[in-house]
Every structure is written in C-alpha cells, then in structure tokens.
Amino acid sequence: MPVTNLLLVITGASRGLGRAIANEFCGPSLSGYWPSLRYIRAVLIARSTSGLEETRTAIEANTRKSDLNIRVDLHSIDLSDLNTLDHKLDAVFQQIQNDQIKYDRVVLVNNAGSLGALGPCLESPSLSDMRQTVDFNVTSALWTTVRFGRFIRDDERTNDATTTIVNISSLVAVQPFPTMAIYSAVKAARDSYQEAFAQELNGDTNVKFLNYAPGPLETDMANELRKDARLDDNLKPHFQKTLIDPNASAKTLARLVAENSFESGKHIDYFDLQSES
C-alpha cells in the first residue's frame, strides 16, 4: 500500500539508539522502502531538552537534500514521573491533532528505559530503587502504549493507518542474565505485554506489535556495564569489545517495520535478521 504521510513517535529520543532510530526513520533511505512518502511528522520524547535539540539538528543535517517534508516536534517529558505522565501525553496527542493531516502509516517506538541496579538479587539497593526502575521501564512504557493505542483508534487522522508499535527489547527478556535480574525482568514484562496485546487485536490487521532486540550496542549503557564492578564476571568480557553501531541496528529496524511482514507480538533479534540477509 502506498505511504504518503508517516506519523512517527519515539520515546528516549535524546541520545543513543533513540537518536539513531529518529535519524534513520527520517532519513533519505526510508524513501527506498516507501517511494511515495512525502511527509513525516516526527514526535520525539525524552527528558533531556538539549539532547532532543541535538537529535533534531542531526535529522535536519541528514535530510537537508531530501525531498521529504519533515516536521519534528520535541517534548521534554520525564517518563518516570507517573503523576504527570497522563497530562504530558495529553499535550503530545493534542499537538498531533492540530495539524489536520491524515496518516497512512503510524509508528510508535517505545525506546526509553534504564539499566537499573546491577548485582545479585539479594543485594538490591532498596525497595524505592526497585520501584523507580519498574515505574520507568514497565509502568510508564505500558501506559504510553495504552494511551497511544487509544489515540490511534479514536482519531480519524490515524484510525485507518497501518500501525506498528515497537517495544525496544533485549536478549535478556528471553535469556535472563545473572546480576542483571531487574533489567531482565522489566524487559520480559514489556515483551509479554506486547505479545498479549497483539493476541487481543489478532483480528485487526492494521495494528501490529514488535518486540525488537537491537543487540549489544555501543552506547552510554554499554559504558555503564563496563564500569560497574557488580556485573557478573562471566559477562564482563562481552562488553570489553566494540559493540554494534546503533545506526546499523536502527537501519535494520526501519527495514523490518517498512516491510511489515513479521508476526505481530513476536520477539525479533538484530542477529536473527543478519543471518537471513
């Protein structure tokens, strides 16, 4: 089906993989998948205002010679603050509604997340620390998905669009690692929620859910793992080498979403796709 207008919403878009995904989905290469694409509304969400501005600058530099008409909206939101989350999401959706554009494709990338405390389970820092990690990585992400799903269902600009809701997952969601238990748990919860959501909407061919594991990336999170002495000794060597370029993983994700041939709710790893190509 020809794609003319794309609505793209990305959380955690101020750095790392989130910035790479924003750059790739707004870049010239996307026109190779969707030759008729003319307009992109990119809605970027993160806590860091300066980081979001840097992402917008990167997009503008990447698309300077492109024929695409791209609008980039920035929303500085602390997604871990559940007391204000609904109000802040209301503002995001209201701004989208104001432009009167009818969309053919809609993509949400739920990328925001944190590593949480490393170390043995019995040495978890505190109840409040665990709660904060779960609030940010699970409750916030799941509620953002719910609110986004309601928005695309109820708004005439999006309710007929082919929609993809992407959860940025991890290998640890399906293969838990020692000393990374909290990170494994929150990623598994997000995967499970998306899979159940996909089963509920099994009859709706317009909406698909994807759990995408981007592989071990060369990002700030990798540096955190390298520096933390609490990481299991058997895992440390895996992070002492150069890891995957976030731009390469973002490119793989963009192709996967554009082709739209994956099974809804499935967990797909970056390395699975490399073996197929």
Q: Keywords, please?
A:
alpha/beta, Rossmann fold, seven-stranded parallel β-sheet, 9 helices, 44% helix, globular
Describe the 3D structure.
The radius of gyration is 18 Å and the shape is globular. The protein starts with a strand and ends with a helix. 44% of the residues lie in helices and 17% in strands. It is α/β, with parallel strands linked by helices. It has 9 helices and 7 strands. The protein has one domain: NAD(P)-binding Rossmann-like Domain (Rossmann fold), CATH 3.40.50.
Number of strands: 7
Shape: globular
How is the biggest beta sheet arranged?
Answer: 7 strands, parallel
H and E order: EHHEHEHEHEHEHHEH
Low-confidence stretches: none
CATH superfamily: NAD(P)-binding Rossmann-like Domain
Instruction: For the largest sheet, list the strands in their spatial order.
Output: 3-2-1-4-5-6-7
Looking at how many chains there are and whether they match, the oligomeric state comes to single chain
CATH topology: Rossmann fold
- Second rung of CATH, namely the architecture: 3-Layer(aba) Sandwich
Fraction of residues in helix: 40-55%
Query: What's the end-to-end separation, in Å?
Result: 24 Å
Please tally the helical runs, counting DSSP H or I stretches of 4 or more residues. 9
Highest-level CATH class: Alpha Beta
- Integer average pLDDT: 92
**Beta-strand percentage range:** 15-25%
Indicate the radius of gyration in whole angstroms.
18 Å
Count of all domains: 1
Going by helix content, strand content and strand pairing, the class is: alpha/beta
InterPro entries: Biopterin_syn/organic_redct, NAD(P)-bd_dom_sf, SDR_fam
GO biological process, one term: tetrahydrobiopterin biosynthetic process
Subcellular location: Cytoplasm
GO cellular component, one term: cytoplasm
